[in-house]
Amino acid sequence: AAYDLARMGHQVTVFEGLDKPGGMPRYGIPEYRLPYESLEADVEVIQAMGVEIQCNTRVGRDVSMAQMRQEFDAVMLALGLQLGRSTRIPHADHVNVHKAVDILRRITNGESFDVPRSAVVIGGGNVAMDAARSIARLQMQAFGEVKVTVSALEDFEHFLADEEEIRESREEGIEILDSRGPQACIVEDGRLAGLSTLKVISIFDDQHRFAPKYDENDQQTHEAEMIIEAIGQMTDSDLLGEELTESLEWHRGRLQVNEDGCTSAPWLWAAGDMVRGPDVVHAVADGHRTARSIHNYLLAQGTKECAS
Asked: Quick one: how far is CA 159 from the chain centroid?
């Protein structure tokens, strides 16, 4: 969106809360899938168009939405889904239980942490595979062996991860278990020891609502010095402030926009994962579409609604 708007002759500023630009493609996708050199080349092109990128500038802390509304003619939200969801099972608050997005971000940043000799990843999507493979590679470097287990609710016929991701994870020595439901993180003398799971009988009820049923006679314990939750992500909407958040339209955690990306506030657009869910291709398409809408709005400044 910033690139397109700059090409159209507009002055554009991007506020980035982290050290480097790139958002979830940089901090949520491992480098082996998306080389940082390619990402940085794209960022350099965008900056060469005159786009100003202010890193380490967190909205809600360093700059408020009210300030941006006052200082800019139009504002677009492209927040992504940077927060992980929790299983909320017993002891999920243990210090060695992490969200997948947090672990992937720490690895990207080069932050040091104790590599676990054994780990369990809860979830069966591509993010779960990314986290599992990232930890597996660190284990191979540190210990010369891989001991990572992926535990997912779905059976293999309904797995969320791509077949290629599953195959390549197995090739790296990762054990993948289907139809296992997490019941509790096992803690012994304050130390995380593993994950308890039950066999999944069904995930949804007759009304297609999420209501897992388990076989109480099929319990397993999976050894783990670290447990990683990869069961979904959400947007950090707190940075918008309570008043703005309540004035916008939401549906199941997703910000509602029209076909041009305009929210219910005439000065505010939104695009990407926080609107559609995690998908880089659709996020990029959203950026192009939203840029056109903002451009038309700015040309017709003074109207009360987004131009389509």
From this structure: 19
**Spatial distance between the Cα atoms of 120 and 111, rounded to a whole number of angstroms:** 20
For residue 302, what pLDDT is reported? 47
Cα-based distances in Å from 86 to 19, 195, 224, 235:
26, 14, 17, 14
Q: Which residue has the tokens 């139009």?
A: 74
Between CA 188 and CA 261 the distance in angstroms is: 50
Identify the bridge partners of residue 238 per DSSP, sorted by sequence position: none
pLDDT for the residue 304? 44
CA atoms 90, 95, 97, 102: torsion sign: positive
Are the beta carbons of 176 and 169 closer than 8 angstroms? yes
Instruction: Compute CA distances 97 → 89, 169, 174, 217, 304, whole Å.
Output: 11, 21, 19, 26, 48
* 97 close to 135: Cβ distance less than 8 angstroms: no
Which residues in the chain come in under a pLDDT of 70? 302-308
DSSP 248: S
In 3D, which of 278, 235, 226 has the Cα closest to residue 98?
A: 226
Q: Is 190 left (phi over 0), alpha (psi -120 to 50) or beta?
A: left
